[in-house]
């Protein structure tokens, strides 16, 4: 006999600092969860990419091969590959297990700010300061990109991919959404340089953070403003933002060492976590659990909800 | 039976058939297992039931062709011996026997057809219907049903049949056999004109004269004329080559594509062919002897008597024209032979005309005037007032003709009385046609005066514009296009470079591109009528006009945009062929509107642009998405891109200084007309504050000569021009420059100034840099190109945080590098080799706070602090610090040269520093 689904609990926010990992790779440029949230990747300024178990705090592997600092990384859906991009203008496809470079895609004329796999990890999309997004084919041996999306007028700071869309935020103050299925490009003007964009998990909205210290929640289809979230400080740096695991809260880094949580619907500030004294430059939210990774300086911090009890054997 | 007891027998009701009682000693029968309970067809094959009951049928092996072993082709049998009796295979040859059986798909059994079926076949049904009619709510309602029986035959047929007509007979009273008509002797030639087509009754004659006199016959059936509409482009009565006829059919005859129905002769010959046993292959002189040909006796078209008619016949048996009253040409074939030789075969139902048609006189269409365009061009209506008389003048000039030309006043503008006046008629007397006539004399006079006054005004205006028109039309070729005069001057004004040909505005159409290039070439040689020569003479006047317009426009647009310049331009995203749009509307254009929309938080339609975008086919494949544009080869945004800040706009700049104002303004006119005249630069937000000053004017002129930097300036210059409605002298330029000189968002122009004069002190530039860095708009002004030019370096850009950018650069670079390390797009790196994370966290934070404080301070202070800070940290990363110092001193910068950094670094450094650095290298590696 099956009971009805228990009443949806109120969203729990990660408030307890579970772990602090000193990554030992210079500044942590970005921290990313893998697809199921069991592992995370940290991009270091010492040209390395590291794979961690954030809950146990164990370093699993170090991937070195970049020629300059690593700025972003992403894992494939099957955890078999990683991609990363960095200041050496290259996009690198890694084999997770062996730690070897599978392919190196060269062609960007500037630093690669952001990389993403598509849903099936057949294409890597990389956004660069050279104002292009390039789609690299992982299947063929083609050295040049499948397509170059050069509509941005300035550096591309953020790229996100859904099953049929590419969402790109650019420093020219526009969020561009390339809809492959419809064959259309939607360009939303936000005005201020965009530091980070992301889809909501239900795929209906896009969250846009820009350098005017504002996060905006836009309706994906119409471009209408659904919500505005302010209170944090983001005027200079490329900071990450994201939505919580159930789209209940909007999460953003801040330049004053905090991570801000806003209620998505009401727009009210729900929580401001003091992560560290410095800028919180990157964060990642667990895909299913209230677990937050925030990178500040050279370390990452793992936050869980208050009720969370670390499993036995957690080192 | 099943129950042995008789009592219970009465009580019980038994259904079904009882089992037979077992006999003694007999073993009970085993029930047939399920797998044996099969149905087989008459050939013993398993039959499966498909569909409801046995309605469906299965073919082959589990609905496949063939058997369990697969499909086996029928074994080859040589047909060499029995080729003659090999006939054309019909569908029946491939059908199974079941299909031909009574319930198959093609039953072969003899069945009564509908025609012969008894009408009262279904008596039961009729009875039922009668009953139903009686009991129906409306008695006799079913009577209607009787009337509305589904008609298998038309009423006419029914009626005819009732009257005793049978199919195959003609209609009409039965006829007695008529005596055969005398035919003219074939030997006797008949001279003169053809007989009138009256004697065609002869077609009803019959050869048969064995029949008795008193026997009447039904008239012959009439072949209805085929009235199917002709829907192909073949000749009349042409039928395509019938493969059956060509390959298997009568081989003795030439393939006759025009005989719908075989003629007598062809039948005859066909018979011969069949008799000879030749059925296959194409033969005849034209085809030679094929490999399939068995006998080659016939290849030279031997003439045998058997091919000719030896018997005189009235009419060909195969002919179906009985009764059809059209002339029978074959009766007169001999007479009309001569004509036929010319014309060929005459179609059925036609005969040669006896008298020739009087030829119609053909009048050529009237010649159109050379500059006639069948498209009406709407000119903006400008009321003639004193203020805009200049604009009016410009308009009329650009149009090449006067707007109010009394001579060319359209006749539609005249009313009847005016027309009458023109024709010299006397006005109609009689009933009053106008209200005026009811007015008193005094009022009439008053009206007249008023009218005269207005007329006078209008006449003056007309005269004025006429004079202008005359002047301008003399100067211009009669081309009607708008920018005609302007491109001429533009091209000959020395602005045309050889690079113009690098642009291929018509690359989609190579022919057109060729013409365009030719036009450019001849243009360079200074031919005035180049355009007329280059146009394709086979084009229509309208096409010519259109192309002329395009060429001249393209010549203007692409004139001096050579490749290096164009690569620095940002590209427009709109279609090239848009007729009226000078610079296509682009998402960038209405940034101001969008900004205000953003400010008002009116996101949505106002801030959204939607474009057609073509993903690469492979990308779609990889994304598992169907290609949205399966038949387009284009990738990305459609249409060839074009300079957004088109050269056109700054081509006008030198002209403004050098050319007479009328000329310039005539160029501007199309811009005014463009739908996007309110288009603004995203930089000139402060355009309201306008001020003239001579320095800026000078600057703008200087800038126009600076070369690559021009593209920076052109946008706002352009925009300013657009805003200006009146005659454009250099005023707008000044304003544009001014607007940039003032206000927080004026940075680009400031940078430009710096770039031009390259003498500004670093302090100044840095302070301006700081201020602008604060302003929000300044992020707006992010550079167009992928890489920013150093002046445009912004905090927003994720620029290098590497210690030492090196490339030598203009003077404002020093401050730039500082910005680089400070205002980094992403936090500064903590020292890599620092073991303690806590400390690491501290450093950038402190620095940051200071940074923020410093923002509004002057550059010098800032620098000092920086250095202090660095000294503070010196023990941690000496090497880095040194690098920074050295970089500062060398005043170098680089946005993205992070890769090449180390090499260049070393080049710049002193040996000591190098050594020091080397020492630190392993540390950095760790």
UniProtKB/TrEMBL annotation, chain A:
Biological processes per GO annotation: mRNA splicing, via spliceosome
Superkingdom field: Eukaryota
Gene Ontology cellular component annotations, sorted alphabetically: catalytic step 2 spliceosome; cytoplasm
Record's keyword terms, sorted: Cytoplasm, Repeat, WD repeat
Keyword NAD: no
Residue spans of the WD repeats: 21-62, 63-104, 105-137
Annotated compartments: Cytoplasm
PANTHER family linked to this entry: WD REPEAT DOMAIN-CONTAINING PROTEIN 83, WD40 REPEAT PROTEIN
Subunit structure: Interacts with EGLN3/PHD3. Interacts with ERK signaling proteins MAP2K1/MEK1, MAP2K2/MEK2, LAMTOR3, ARAF/Raf-1, MAPK1/ERK2 and MAPK3/ERK1. Identified in the spliceosome C complex. Interacts with PARD6B and CRB3. Interacts strongly with GTP-bound RRAGA but not with inactive GDP-bound. Interacts with p62/SQSTM1.
Family of the protein in this entry: Belongs to the WD repeat MORG1 family.
Name used for this protein in its record: WD repeat domain-containing protein 83
Species assigned in the record: Pipistrellus kuhlii (Kuhl's pipistrelle)
Automatic annotation (TrEMBL), chain B:
Full protein name: G-patch domain containing 1
Region (Disordered): 1-43, 72-92, 170-209, 464-484, 568-592, 660-926
Domain of life of the native organism: Eukaryota
Positions with biased composition (Basic and acidic residues): 582-592, 669-694, 718-733
Any one GO BP annotation for this protein: mRNA processing
GO molecular function: RNA binding
Organism: Pipistrellus kuhlii
Transmembrane segments: none
Start-end of Basic residues biased regions: 847-883, 917-926
Biased composition (Acidic residues): 1-12, 768-781
Biased composition (Low complexity): 891-900
Domain G-patch: start-end pairs: 152-172
Pfam families: DUF1604 (PF07713), G-patch (PF01585), HTH_TGH (PF26093)
């Amino acid at each position: 006999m099956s009971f009805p689904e228990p009443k949806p609990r109120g969203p729990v926010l990660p408030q307890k600092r579970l772990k602090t990992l000193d990554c030992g790779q210079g500044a942590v440029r970005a921290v990313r969860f893998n697809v199921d949230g069991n592992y995370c990747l940290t991009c270091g300024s010492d040209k390395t990419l590291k794979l961690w178990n954030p809950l146990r705090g164990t370093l699993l592997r170090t991937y070195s091969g970049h020629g300059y600092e690593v700025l972003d990384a992403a894992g494939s859906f099957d955890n078999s590959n990683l991609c990363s991009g960095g200041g050496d203008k290259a996009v690198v496809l890694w084999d997770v297990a062996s730690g070897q470079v599978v392919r190196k895609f060269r062609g960007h004329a500037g630093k690669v700010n952001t990389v993403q796999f598509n849903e099936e990890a057949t294409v890597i999309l990389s956004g660069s300061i050279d104002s292009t997004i390039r789609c690299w084919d992982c299947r063929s041996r083609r050295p040049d990109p499948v397509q170059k999306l050069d509509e941005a007028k300035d550096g591309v700071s953020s790229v996100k991919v859904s099953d049929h869309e590419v969402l790109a935020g650019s420093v020219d103050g526009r969020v561009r959404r390339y809809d492959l299925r419809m064959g259309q490009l939607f360009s939303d003007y936000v005005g201020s340089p965009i530091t980070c964009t992301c889809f909501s998990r239900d795929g209906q909205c896009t969250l846009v953070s820009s350098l005017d210290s504002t996060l905006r929640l836009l309706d994906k289809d119409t471009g209408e403003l659904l919500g505005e979230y302010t209170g944090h400080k983001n005027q200079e740096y490329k900071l990450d933002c994201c939505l919580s695991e159930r789209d209940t809260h909007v999460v953003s880094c801040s330049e004053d060492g905090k991570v801000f949580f806003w209620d998505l619907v009401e727009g009210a500030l729900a929580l401001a976590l003091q992560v560290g004294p410095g800028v919180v430059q990157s964060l990642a939210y667990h895909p299913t659990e209230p677990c937050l990774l925030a990178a500040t300086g050279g370390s990452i911090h793992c936050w869980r909800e208050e009720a969370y009890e670390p499993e036995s054997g957690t080192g | 039976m099943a129950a042995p007891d008789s009592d219970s027998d009465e009580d019980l009701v038994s259904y079904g058939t009882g089992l037979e009682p077992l006999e003694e000693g007999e073993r009970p029968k085993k029930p047939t297992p399920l797998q044996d309970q099969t149905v087989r067809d008459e050939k013993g094959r398993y039959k499966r039931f498909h569909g409801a009951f046995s309605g469906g049928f299965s073919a082959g092996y589990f609905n496949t062709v063939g058997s369990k072993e697969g499909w086996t082709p029928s074994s080859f049998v040589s047909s060499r011996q029995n080729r003659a009796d090999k006939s054309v295979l019909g569908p029946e040859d491939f059908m199974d026997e079941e299909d031909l059986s009574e319930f198959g798909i093609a039953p072969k059994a003899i069945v009564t057809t509908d025609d012969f079926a008894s009408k009262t076949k279904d008596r039961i049904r009729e009875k039922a219907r009668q009953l139903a009619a009686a009991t129906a709510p409306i008695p006799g309602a079913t009577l209607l049903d009787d009337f509305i029986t589904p008609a298998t035959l038309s009423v006419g047929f029914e009626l005819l049949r009732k009257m005793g007509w049978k199919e195959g007979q003609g209609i009409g009273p039965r006829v007695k056999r008529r005596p055969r008509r005398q035919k003219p002797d074939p030997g006797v030639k008949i001279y003169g004109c053809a007989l009138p087509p009256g004697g065609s009754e002869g077609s009803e004659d019959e050869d048969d004269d064995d029949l008795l006199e008193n026997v009447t016959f039904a008239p012959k059936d009439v072949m209805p004329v085929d009235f199917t509409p002709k829907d192909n482009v073949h000749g009349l009565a042409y039928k395509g080559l019938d493969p059956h006829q060509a390959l298997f059919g009568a081989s003795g005859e030439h393939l006759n594509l025009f005989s719908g129905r075989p003629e007598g002769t062809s039948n005859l010959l066909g018979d011969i062919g069949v008799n000879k046993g030749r059925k296959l292959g194409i033969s005849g002189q034209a085809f030679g002897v094929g490999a399939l040909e068995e006998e080659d006796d016939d290849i030279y078209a031997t003439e045998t008597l058997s091919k000719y008619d030896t018997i005189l016949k009235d009419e060909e048996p195969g002919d179906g024209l009985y009764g059809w009253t059209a002339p029978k040409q074959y009766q007169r074939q001999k007479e009309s032979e001569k004509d036929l030789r010319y014309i060929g075969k005459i179609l059925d139902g036609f005969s040669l005309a006896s008298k020739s048609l009087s030829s119609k006189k053909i009048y050529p269409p009237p010649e159109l005037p050379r500059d006639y365009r069948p498209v009406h061009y709407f000119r903006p209506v400008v009321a003639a007032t004193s203020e805009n008389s200049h604009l009016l003048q410009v308009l009329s000039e650009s149009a090449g003709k006067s707007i109010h030309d009394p001579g060319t006043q359209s006749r539609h503008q005249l009313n009847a009385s005016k027309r009458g006046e023109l024709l010299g008629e006397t006005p109609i007397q009689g009933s009053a046609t106008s209200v005026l006539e009811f007015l008193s004399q005094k009022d009439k006079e008053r009206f007249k005066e008023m009218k005269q006054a207005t007329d006078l005004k209008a006449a003056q205006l007309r005269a004025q514009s006429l004079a202008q028109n005359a002047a301008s039309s003399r100067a211009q070729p009669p081309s009607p296009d708008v920018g005609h005069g302007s491109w001429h001057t533009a091209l000959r004004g020395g602005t045309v470079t050889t690079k113009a040909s690098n642009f291929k505005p018509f690359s989609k159409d190579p022919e057109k591109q060729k013409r365009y290039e030719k036009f450019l070439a001849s243009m360079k040689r200074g031919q005035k009528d180049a355009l007329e020569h280059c146009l394709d003479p086979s084009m229509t006047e309208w096409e010519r006009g259109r192309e002329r317009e395009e060429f001249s426009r393209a010549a203007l647009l692409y004139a001096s945009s050579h490749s290096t310049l164009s690569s620095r331009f940002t590209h427009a995203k709109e279609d090239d062929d848009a007729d009226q749009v000078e610079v296509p509307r682009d998402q960038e254009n209405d940034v101001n509107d969008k900004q205000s929309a953003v400010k008002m938080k009116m996101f949505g339609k106002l801030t959204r642009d939607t474009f057609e975008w073509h993903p690469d086919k492979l990308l779609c494949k990889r994304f598992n998405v169907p290609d949205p544009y399966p038949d387009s080869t284009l990738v990305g945004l459609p249409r060839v891109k074009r300079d957004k800040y088109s050269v056109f706009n700054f081509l006008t700049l030198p002209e403004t200084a050098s050319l007479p104002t009328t000329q310039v303004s005539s160029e501007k006119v199309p811009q005014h007309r463009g739908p996007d005249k309110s288009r603004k630069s995203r930089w000139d937000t402060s355009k309201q504050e306008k001020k003239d000053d001579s320095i800026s004017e000078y600057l703008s002129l200087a800038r126009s000569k600076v070369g690559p930097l021009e593209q920076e300036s052109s946008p706002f210059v352009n925009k300013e021009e657009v805003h200006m409605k009146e005659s454009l002298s250099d005023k707008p330029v000044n304003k544009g420059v001014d607007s940039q000189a003032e206000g927080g968002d004026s940075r680009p122009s400031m940078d430009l100034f710096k770039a031009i004069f390259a003498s500004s002190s670093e302090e100044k530039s840095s302070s301006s840099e700081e201020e602008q860095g604060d302003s929000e708009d300044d992020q707006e002004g992010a550079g167009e190109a992928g890489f920013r030019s150093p002046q445009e370096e912004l905090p927003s850009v994720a620029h290098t945080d590497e210690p030492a950018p090196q490339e030598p650069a203009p003077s404002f670079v020093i401050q730039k590098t500082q910005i680089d390390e400070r205002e980094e797009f992403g936090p500064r790196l903590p020292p890599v080799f620092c073991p303690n994370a806590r400390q690491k966290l501290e450093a950038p934070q402190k620095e940051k706070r200071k940074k923020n404080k410093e923002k509004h301070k002057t550059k010098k202070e800032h620098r000092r602090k920086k250095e202090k800070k660095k000294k503070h940290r010196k023990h941690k990363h000496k090497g880095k610090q040194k690098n920074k110092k050295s970089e500062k001193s060398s005043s170098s910068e680089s946005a993205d040269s992070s890769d090449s950094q180390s090499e260049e670094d070393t080049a710049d450094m002193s040996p000591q520093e190098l050594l020091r650095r080397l020492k630190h290298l392993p540390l950095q590696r760790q």
